[in-house]
C-alpha cells in the first residue's frame, strides 16, 4: 500500500500544472477579446463639452425670450400711450372746430340781423335841394373818426394773422393752423418781439435772410391765392381774435418744419409736435432777454 504515495504527489503536481495552464489560457482569452473589441471605452470629454454648450445655448435662448417679452410689453405700452395722445388731440381739435363753427354761425346771424335792422338808403336829393341846404357837412362834426381808425387797424391785424395761417399752415389740420396763430399771439405778448400782429408777422421782411416768417421775404406772396383756403384762413383769424383760441402750442414762440433742423432749436425747449411742425419756447427769462431778433 505504501507504493501508491508517489502517484499522489504526481497527481498533485499535475493539478498545479493544470491550474497554471488554465490561468494562462484565461488571460490569453481576455487578451484576445481586447484585441478583437479594442480597449474599454473611456468617458468622452467631448460629450461633457456638448452638454455644456447645449446648456449655455438654452440659457441664452431663455434670456432672449425674456428680453423679447419685455421689449414687446414696452412697445405695446408706448403704442397705447401714443394712441391715447392721438385720441386726446382729436378730441381737442373737434372741440376747437365746434367752437369755430359756433362762432361762424353767430357771425352770420349777427350780420344778417344788422342788415335787416340797419339804416336804409334815403332817396337821392335833387341837385337844387342839395345846393340850397345850409350846411351839408354839419352832421360830420359829431362823427368819431377814431372808430374808423380802430376798425382799420383791426382789419389789418386780422389780415396779417390770416396771411400767417394761410402761407405757413394752409395744408395743416385745423389744430395745426391754430398752433401757428397761437405762436403769433404769444410773440405779440413777449417783450422780445413787436407788440402788434402785423409787426410780428412782417418783422425782418425788409431783409431777404432776416424775416421771421419765410413767406414774407421769399416771394410766396406773389403766388396766386387759393380762394377757398384763403377764406378759411380769414375765418379762422377772425375767430381767434374774437376769442376762439386754445393754447395748443403750449406757449410756444418758435416753430419749424419737421424736415429741417435750424441751429436755434437746440437752445429752446420743445413744447409740441403738431402736424409737420415742431414747436418751442424760451427755457427761461434770461434766455428771453438775450434772444436775438433773428430767432
UniProtKB/TrEMBL annotation:
UniProt-recorded Gene Ontology molecular function terms: hydrolase activity
Keywords, alphabetical: Hydrolase
Chain ranges of the Cell wall hydrolase SleB domain: 171-280
Species name: Hyphococcus luteus
Keyword Hydrolase listed: yes
Protein name in the entry: Cell wall hydrolase
Pfam families given in the database record: Hydrolase_2
Leader peptide range in chain numbering: none
InterPro entries: Cell_wall_hydrolase_SleB, SleB_dom1
Stretches the record annotates as Disordered: 15-40
Amino acid at each position: 500500500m505504501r507504493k501508491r504515495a508517489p502517484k499522489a504527489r504526481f497527481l498533485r503536481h499535475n493539478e498545479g500544472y493544470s491550474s497554471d495552464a488554465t490561468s494562462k489560457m484565461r488571460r490569453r482569452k481576455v487578451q484576445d477579446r481586447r484585441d478583437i473589441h479594442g480597449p474599454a471605452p473611456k468617458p468622452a470629454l467631448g460629450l461633457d463639452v456638448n452638454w455644456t454648450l447645449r446648456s449655455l445655448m438654452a440659457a441664452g435662448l431663455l434670456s432672449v425670450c425674456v428680453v423679447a417679452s419685455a421689449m414687446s410689453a414696452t412697445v405695446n405700452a408706448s403704442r397705447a400711450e401714443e394712441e391715447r395722445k392721438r385720441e386726446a388731440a382729436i378730441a381737442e381739435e373737434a372741440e376747437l372746430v365746434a367752437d369755430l363753427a359756433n362762432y361762424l354761425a353767430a357771425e352770420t346771424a349777427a350780420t344778417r340781423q344788422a342788415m335787416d335792422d340797419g339804416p336804409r338808403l334815403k332817396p337821392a336829393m335833387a341837385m337844387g335841394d342839395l345846393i340850397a341846404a345850409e350846411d351839408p357837412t354839419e352832421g360830420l362834426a359829431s362823427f368819431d373818426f377814431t372808430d374808423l381808425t380802430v376798425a382799420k387797424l383791426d382789419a389789418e391785424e386780422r389780415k396779417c394773422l390770416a396771411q400767417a395761417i394761410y402761407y405757413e399752415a394752409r395744408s395743416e389740420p385745423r389744430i395745426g393752423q391754430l398752433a401757428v396763430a397761437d405762436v403769433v399771439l404769444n410773440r405779440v405778448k413777449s417783450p422780445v418781439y413787436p407788440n402788434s400782429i402785423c409787426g410780428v408777422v412782417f418783422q425782418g421782411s425788409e431783409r431777404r435772410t432776416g424775416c421771421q416768417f419765410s413767406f414774407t421775404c421769399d416771394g410766396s406772396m406773389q403766388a396766386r391765392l387759393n380762394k377757398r383756403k384763403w377764406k378759411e384762413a380769414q375765418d379762422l383769424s377772425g375767430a381767434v381774435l374774437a376769442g376762439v383760441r386754445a393754447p395748443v402750442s403750449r406757449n410756444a414762440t418758435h416753430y419749424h418744419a419737421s424736415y429741417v433742423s435750424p441751429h436755434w432749436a437746440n437752445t429752446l425747449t420743445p413744447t409740441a409736435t403738431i402736424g409737420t411742425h415742431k414747436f418751442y419756447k424760451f427755457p427761461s427769462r434770461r434766455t428771453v432777454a438775450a434772444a436775438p431778433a433773428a430767432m
